[in-house]
Structures are given as C-alpha cells and as structure tokens.
Design a protein that fits this description.
alpha+beta
C-alpha cells in the first residue's frame, strides 16, 4: 500500500562519462522520497532537491573497461500520488590534528540555514521530458481555468485593482466605500 501512495520511478541518465563523453547510460530506479541537500547556496527547496538529483559517481566504463567518473542526472519519470521530501540538515567536517601521532577528527555538523518552502511546490523542472509533456497538458488546462476565472471576475467588476485603474481617485475612494458597505451589509452613504 505504501508503494502505491509514495512510490514512484526516477529516470537516471548517467550522461557523459567525463573521460569518454560519447558514452551514456540510461536506467531507472524506484524512489520513495527526494532529499533536499542544504548548504550555503541553497535557499529554496527546489534548488536543494536539484542538488541531490545531480552529481558525479564512479562506475566501470563499458568502452574504456576501467572505473571512470560519470555525471549523474536524475529526473522523475513517474509522478507519485504523494511526494515526500526529506531535509538533509547534517554534514561532516574533517579537522586536522596538529600533535604527533594524532589522527584527523571527523565532526558532525547541523546546518541551521533556513530554506524557503513554497505553499505550492512546482516540481516541473525535476521531471524528465516525457513527464513534462504529460504535465504540459494539465498546466495548459489550469491556465485556461485561471484565465476564465479572471475574465469572469473582470466582467462582473469584482476586481477592484482593475477598476481602480479606470477610475479617478475620488471615484476609486467612493467605490471602495461602496464595496466596504456592501460587505458589511449596510447601504452605501450617498
């Protein structure tokens, strides 16, 4: 049951072997959560998730026959019903010891930097091209609905900002008073 709610699939494109740019590997793997990696540069959740979806990894090159570094780029290929994002707020730092015979010490760090999380998370840029084409259809539908609602509000005159642009300052103040009185359920003063 958990798999059907939060489980999904990620397309991994191990594009461009650094030593041999002609070699690319494309695979997919399941995922249950995305990690938001935080550091000095990350201020928004999507930037932290993108940081976790891109990086380098070492694997054996098929053409070279030796271990090589690959640029790993992951994208969501199947949307989950619920998207879980884990905040990776911990890191480690190596401290050099100065005394004779002392070994380096690894210290755990907690990153306390605030990261902005929007009310509505747009993950369009985290998706692969196939998933983006599916999302484009729904995005167009949503834009059409928003445009229709805006046109309906403008036609009925409920957008004070729209009407205020067309009115003189005195008329705008009178219109504001009329709307306040209408909201309070009293008659507008004449």
């Amino acid at each position: 049951m958990l798999r059907s709610l939060v489980g999904s699939e990620m397309c991994i494109r191990d594009s461009s072997c650094i030593e041999n740019p002609d070699e690319t590997n494309i695979s997919s793997e399941p995922f249950w959560k995305l990690s938001c990696y935080m550091d000095k540069e990350v201020t928004f959740v999507t930037a932290g998730v993108m940081k976790g979806m891109e990086g380098t990894m070492e694997m054996t090159s098929r053409t070279l026959g030796v271990p090589a570094n690959f640029m790993k780029t992951s994208r969501i290929s199947k949307m989950p019903r619920y998207l879980v994002i884990g905040f990776n707020r911990f890191d480690s730092k190596t401290i050099k010891q100065t005394g004779p015979g002392d070994s380096d010490k690894v210290v755990g760090l907690k990153i306390l930097k605030p990261v902005a999380f929007p009310f509505v998370l747009d993950i369009y840029q985290l998706c692969c091209a196939d998933q983006k084409s599916v999302l484009d259809v729904e995005r167009r539908k949503l834009e059409d609905i928003k445009e229709a609602e805006l046109a309906a509000r403008q036609a009925t005159g409920t957008l004070l900002e729209q009407r205020a642009c067309d009115l003189s300052p005195e008329e705008a103040a009178a219109e504001l008073e009329r709307l306040k009185a209408e909201k309070m359920g009293t008659a507008a003063p004449s």
